[in-house]
Write a structure and sequence with these properties.
By secondary structure, the chain is an alpha/beta fold. The protein contains ten helices and seven strands.
């Protein structure tokens, strides 16, 4: 009798908690938006109706990278063979910006938004759920670029094995309507000291290191990004200033941009944009 009473009480508590907890929102329609965010906890896609991005023509100093990624994305969107891409290199150099900008340009060329090409962002910690996401989009008549920003792995992280299996295709094969783009500050997606540690402690050093660094080999397209030189940095600043009609002379912009970059210790697209936000705020101009 006591066991039955206890079970009944537990059941009532569970029902009360279910009533208190709001139901998880449904997964978004795969045809309604040009971009989505994947939520692994509920295995659902959330539509993004206003993507945070800049026009691809405003991205300066990375012309080769822009042309290469645009062509790869354009081929994929048209149903032609294309490669998974790893964009690696310096912080703030425009890696994630170029992915979002290339997607927007190609989608616009093909009649978007929403268009035939959708961008899905997956967070690094949700990589183990990637096979579930791929099964969700496999039967769709749209094409998808799955994008992971700031991808990297540490020594105890086995998630890279899940990603490796997906990039290789596994037994089912990667869906023909899915391409994977990732950005990372590291060319091999893991810190150098971790690679060296694997080499020094493993019974077979070469095999241990090969297991970890071979993940980056699964990306057919590697694009490197590096800190900008001063002329390129000035070109970024002046391009933004002209686009947003800030009205400052080139001489004034350059003088202030040098001071700004020195205080930040680097020259990059991110630093240039932060400088433009500072100047626009001072001038009382909105960056729409």
């Amino acid at each position: 009798m006591m066991d039955q009473d206890l079970k009944a009480m537990i059941s009532r508590i569970a029902e009360a908690l279910d009533r208190l907890a709001p139901p998880a929102p449904p997964s978004a329609d795969l045809r309604e938006a040009e971009a989505y965010v994947w939520h692994a906890a509920g295995h659902r896609l959330e539509a993004v109706h206003r993507v945070n991005r800049v026009d691809i023509d405003l991205l300066q100093g990375i012309d080769r990278q822009k042309a290469t990624l645009l062509e790869n994305t354009r081929r994929f969107a048209k149903g032609l063979p294309a490669n998974n891409a790893l964009l690696w290199g310096s912080r703030g150099a425009g890696k994630s910006s170029i992915v979002k900008a290339a997607h927007a340009k190609v989608n616009l060329e093909l009649g978007g938004p929403p268009g035939p090409l959708a961008l899905i962002e997956i967070h690094r910690e949700d990589i183990p759920s990637l096979p579930v996401l791929l099964n969700r989009v496999r039967e769709s008549d749209r094409r998808f670029v799955v994008f992971c920003d700031d991808l990297s792995f540490d020594g105890q992280d086995a998630a890279y094995k899940s990603l490796k299996a997906v990039l290789d295709g596994g037994i089912e094969g990667r869906p023909e309507n899915v391409l994977f783009y990732a950005t990372s500050n590291r060319r091999h997606l893991m810190p150098r000291d971790m690679i060296e540690n694997e080499r020094s402690t493993a019974i077979n050093p070469s095999e241990a290191v090969e297991e970890k660094v071979s993940l980056s080999d699964r990306f057919g397209l590697w694009l490197g990004f590096h800190n900008a030189d001063q002329d390129t940095f000035f070109a970024m600043i002046e391009g933004y200033a002209q686009h947003y009609k800030l009205g400052l002379s080139s001489e004034e912009l350059r003088k202030r941009a040098v001071e700004w970059s020195v205080t930040r210790g680097s020259r990059s697209g991110r630093v240039a944009w932060q400088f433009i936000q500072e100047v626009a705020g001072e001038l009382g101009k909105k960056l729409g």
